[in-house]
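Much of what follows relies on a compact textual record of a protein's fold. The record below shows the convention in full:
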Amino acid sequence: MPERNIALGIMQLDVAGKKSDGALEALTKAATVEFNQIIQQKLDIQVESFSFAGPSLTAEENGYQALDFIQIGINEKTERKLAFLLIITDVEIAAASMSYLLALPSQLTNVAVISTRRLIAYGEDELPQQEIRTKRLTTLMLHCFGRLLNLDYVQGSTNYLARVQVPDDLDTMQHFTESQHQKMVENLPREANDRYSESSKLAFIGRHTLGNLPRILRGAIRANPARIATKLPTMIATALSVIIVLIFGGETWDFAASVSYGQLAVFVFASFLTATFVLYRAFSFRLISTRRGQTSESSVVTAGATYLALVLTLICLFLMFGVLMYGVVVFVFPDPLMSTWTSDKDGASFAAHMRLAAFLASVGILSGSLGGSADSRSVVRNVLFAVDET
């Protein structure tokens, strides 16, 4: 088997319509030279640097959206067949949970976005800025690349994987440990996801989905499905409005008392399939093929982790709706009404209550997914793909 040439791209991205004075290009080149000297001491990786005249992105209230840059990065990474991509831009990038963003490494997509806008903090205007900017950008690139290789944060302030609170924290970050170097060597081929389909796409997707199950599961868990559920208020409101109406209908109680467990299982399964498909179409990134029609392993992993995260989110919501409806049945409904409302079965039994709760929870996630697709794409995507803000 021929040796794999794993490629890392460093892309300077100038937003279209914004004047460039060449400062970003000079800064990126200088930082890339220092980055290469450090990273290639231990890793056998090919580094490709290039510039990209970006599209006319629109800045929102707090700046440009990092997820727009990640989508551009996915496209470029796929077409150029890169395993990892660092995007460097000089525009302000909006952060979801802090006042500004220095960098956002997206481990699920192997793309990191770095902004040079805030490398010099307030009060540092008198310092030699070019030298400081180069050093800090280099450190930030190493920090992001380490995160893309799935290295954990460390406590020491002198390590490249220390947490960055303010820009001058980058000044003390100066090294990787030997154990980190070893882990980077081990993780590089595993995290690259740089294979491309040659013949059957279906076989390629199936093979690499199974082969990357640990990474897919890790990505889904890292996205925190319980947190995703809290970002879907429209979905929850739509679901509750439907199931509250149904629970006060006699036909619903008749169905729950009479339906078999097999029929109910089929309905629950079909509800999950439909709901996850609707939410995936609403919130996933547009995963593309190359101009030659090849599908990337990275796309398979990203799609698999996204779909699994949404399935786990729906399981959380299913359990929430089920527990809520069971509580309503037990603590709100009068016992005589439970027994007499159904036609010929006892609707007051524990089994009937469980079937009713499962049925209503399934209707909730099915109807809620249709309304949930109206929730903010950027908010949900931030949780799915951008959980590692710096």
Q: What stands out?
A: The longest strand covers residues 7-14. The beta strands are 7-14, 46-53, 64-65, 84-89, 93-94, 103-106, 111-115. The two ends are 39 Å apart (CA to CA).
